């Protein structure tokens, strides 16, 4: 058994955190990851009074409550959703319990004094990088019990890697004279992602076929199965879609068929939809981040 705790996020993804979530991970029977002193901390946001609730996720129970401002259920944070998706795809059963970071329990305060989440502690070693936490889960939760989630194509890992940064610059900007430039840069990053999603991967092309594959039909970044790359990108795309519409009346252009195919396929997966925060919680998280154009 090891525990995953959620706290404040780095400013890089503009995730205002006021609450934490504590997750208990219990691999079925004799999983490779075990022991009572293995703790992972990653970011998550919820708001409201200091109440708490518990939800089981994964395995036989495929349900997650989407909330945040009520102080009970999980809220908006792409880092948290990224790890939830990984764990769900790995087939791990775990419990989620919300706690108030303003009144952190002593055991959470003692995990890594002076360090803000996300961090992971395993066998006395502290990891402060979400990417390292992901690597740890991929290394420890392995076949045949748990599926491998690393992409087959290296380029899938970097697809869309600048979209969120361009979106953040666009949504934070209050200056009218810069809005057009920042929106254009944001659109360029989306177009780059769309081009990648529409470009066939090498394993979609049959060298013995006389027909050319002009447009990819794959469901996700790396093929027809979700991978670590999707767990990283999809939570950010969801934030982009909701926040840009709410605060800029901006929608991803319909002609970006690759992105929309990607999102439609993602919305058919419980691992994504059941770990998404409610739109209202995403909007609330950005209420003071998204600047009005002046």
From TrEMBL:
Designated name of the protein: CLIC N-terminal domain-containing protein
Similarity field: Belongs to the chloride channel CLIC family.
InterPro entries tied to this protein: CLIC, CLIC_N, Glutathione-S-Trfase_C_sf, Glutathione_S-Trfase, Thioredoxin-like_sf
Keywords: Chloride, Chloride channel, Cytoplasm, Ion channel, Ion transport, Membrane, Oxidoreductase, Transmembrane, Transmembrane helix, Transport, Voltage-gated channel
Domain CLIC N-terminal: residue ranges: 66-144
The organism's place on the tree of life at top rank: Eukaryota
Reactions performed catalytically: chloride(in) = chloride(out)
One Pfam family of this chain: CLIC-like_N
Gene3D superfamilies: 1.20.1050.10, Glutaredoxin
Any single GO CC term annotated in Swiss-Prot or TrEMBL for this entry: chloride channel complex
Organism for this UniProt entry: Hymenochirus boettgeri (Congo dwarf clawed frog)
Gene Ontology molecular function: any one: chloride channel activity
Transport keyword on record: yes
Intracellular or extracellular location(s): Cytoplasm; Membrane
Membrane topology: Single-pass membrane protein
């Amino acid at each position: 058994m090891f525990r995953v705790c959620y706290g404040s996020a780095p400013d890089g993804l503009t995730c205002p955190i006021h609450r934490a979530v504590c997750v208990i991970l219990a691999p079925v029977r004799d999983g490779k990851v075990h022991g009572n002193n293995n703790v992972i901390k990653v970011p998550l946001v919820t708001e409201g009074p200091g109440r708490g609730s518990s939800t089981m996720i994964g395995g036989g129970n495929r349900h997650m409550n989407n909330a945040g401002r009520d102080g009970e259920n999980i809220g908006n944070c792409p880092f948290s959703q990224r790890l939830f998706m990984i764990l769900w795809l790995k087939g791990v059963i775990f419990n989620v319990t919300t706690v108030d970071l303003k009144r952190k329990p002593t055991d959470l305060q003692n995990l890594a004094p002076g360090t803000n989440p996300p961090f992971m502690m395993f066998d006395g070693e502290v990891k402060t990088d979400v990417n390292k936490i992901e690597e740890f889960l991929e290394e420890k939760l392995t076949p045949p019990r748990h599926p491998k989630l690393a992409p087959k194509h290296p380029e899938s890992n970097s697809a869309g890697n600048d979209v969120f940064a361009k979106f953040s610059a666009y949504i934070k900007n209050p200056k009218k004279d810069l809005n057009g430039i920042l929106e254009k840069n944001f659109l360029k990053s989306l177009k780059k992602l769309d081009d990648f999603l529409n470009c066939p991967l090498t394993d979609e092309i049959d060298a013995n076929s006389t027909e050319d594959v002009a447009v990819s039909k794959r469901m996700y970044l790396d093929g027809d199965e979700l991978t670590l790359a999707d767990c990283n990108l999809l939570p950010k795309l969801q934030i982009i879609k909701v926040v840009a519409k709410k605060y800029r009346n901006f929608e991803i252009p319909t002609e970006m068929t690759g992105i929309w195919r990607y999102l439609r396929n993602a919305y058919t997966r419980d691992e994504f939809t059941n770990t998404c925060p409610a739109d209202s919680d995403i909007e609330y998280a950005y209420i003071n981040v998204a600047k009005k154009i002046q």
